[in-house]
Amino acid sequence: MARHIYVHIPFCEAKCLYCSFFSCVKHDMVEEFFEAAHKELAGLEVNPDVNGDEVDTVYFGGGTPSSVDSKYVCDLLQEVLVKFGINPKVSEVTIEVNPHSLTLAKAKAYKEAGFNRVSMGVQSLTDSVLKTLGRLHDASLAKEAISILKGAGFTNISCDLMLGIPGQTYDNLIGDAAYLVEQGINHVSMYSLSIEAGTPFEKMYPHLDEVVDEDLERKMYHGLRDFLGEHGIKAYEISNCAKEGCESKHNTSYWEGMEYYAIGAGSHGYIEGVRFGHPDDIDSYINNPSNVQVEETLTLSEKIHEYAMLRLRMTRGISRCEFKTRFGLDFDDVFGATVSSLIKDGYLISEEDMVTLTDKGLDYANIVFEEFI
């Protein structure tokens, strides 16, 4: 039985103009934060029988974990591995990094500590686009960071690319992807820019659709997905593409409705049917790291509907057999009318055991998901 652990490191060098994730640019509380994280971890009760998948995963996200001294991160990882009895040689252990804060010394320290997968926020390899996003790095620094990771011995590297950005062209995006392919990157996460409440972009682009043509954004999405697929980096989820065997096992656990632990201020977890979260407040976390707030307790019906929605994010879709095994119910008895209606509208396709999104469904995925909530 697998365990999945998410660790939130809520520190960044600067706040990106589009970002709404909880993070802090002041680093005067880093040491106290990690002391609190060690306390939280020490007090956790670990259930050895969580989930029905096979591979343990650990994911250090943020924020920007690479923005703090690697010793803090590596020491905490070591304690996580011991606490949960996880062997990094047979598990997936990921750390998020940004090009501006990554050094060879940090990369080597991560590798030695047990991280075996890196997810890097490249976002673009076009300087003008990076400037629009408010990123600290330029294209040359991102390319150097890829070389650093490879030089430190990492072979499982994921890079984020963003699309639908004001001023970005289709050729910009495909050119960026071509460089990642050339460098042997085996996983690409692709995200369309969205305007989040409370971000500088909300004021800068209150009507993004007037700045970025919707048809161009969709051309970028499908073109990038197709380009990567042609080079062996195939879509396995709406926003994620990977070479065979390099899919993110940690993120897949979310889409398959698995449970996961959460450590750190601003982190959110899901254990024994209960969703919980730590307050988005570093001071509060330092003073009481075990303080979590119950956000919701899922009923069986809610679990079923959420499972269907999340599995539709996956390229392989929903397996009727797997649904029956998991819930003891016939999928078509529960969702038959909904699926028939969405097939008629061109959003879904049903083939033998599987129900999946069509290309039209990909473009209007939120409409489809609402029918399953």
For the biggest β-sheet, the strand order reads: 7-8-6-5-4-3-2-1-9
Derived structural class? alpha/beta
* Number of discrete helical segments: 15
Q: Which geometry do the CA atoms define? A: globular
The overall strand count is: 15
Mean pLDDT, rounded to whole units? 93
Low-confidence stretches: none
Q: Which bin fits the share of residues in helices? A: 40-55%
Radius of gyration: 21 Å
Largest sheet: 9 strands, mixed
The secondary-structure element order is EHEHEHEHHEHEHHEEHEEEHEHEHHEEHH
Q: Which range does the strand content fall in?
A: 15-25%
- Report the end-to-end length measured between terminal Cα atoms: 28 Å
Structure explained in plain terms:
This protein is of the alpha/beta class. Helix content is 41%, strand content 19%. A nine-stranded mixed beta sheet has the order 7-8-6-5-4-3-2-1-9, with helices on both faces. α2 links the parallel β2 and β3. α1 runs parallel beside α2, α2 packs parallel to α3 and α6 packs parallel to α8. The longest helix has 17 residues. The relative contact order is 0.12.
